[in-house]
Amino acid sequence: MGRRQGRQRGAGGAARPGADPTPIPVDEPADWDGVDYLVRRITGSTSTKTYRCPGCDHEIRPATPHVVAWPADDPDAGLRRHWHTACWRARDRRTVKAQRSRNAPRHG
Fold it and tell me: What CA–CA distance (Å, rounded) separates 72 from 75?
């Protein structure tokens, strides 16, 4: 019988002691239509709600990796919008499909 390959973990399969299992989100700068934006990548495991993408006006389902973008001069990120990653990359080639206020119904 061969030896087991791979890295051995500590007791119970835990990671290094003292290591934080959740990565710190990184806000990447981006420019669009002359406005500076901050963009954060959201992993599928941290995405727990349904959002509507302003690029295609389709839902972003829970557990779907996507990006969140907001103007860099918005200190509380109240203008943040959740985009499909492909829609955010194609934002220069398309227009925003829906203009909704914060209180408008999102699904209907």
Answer: 7
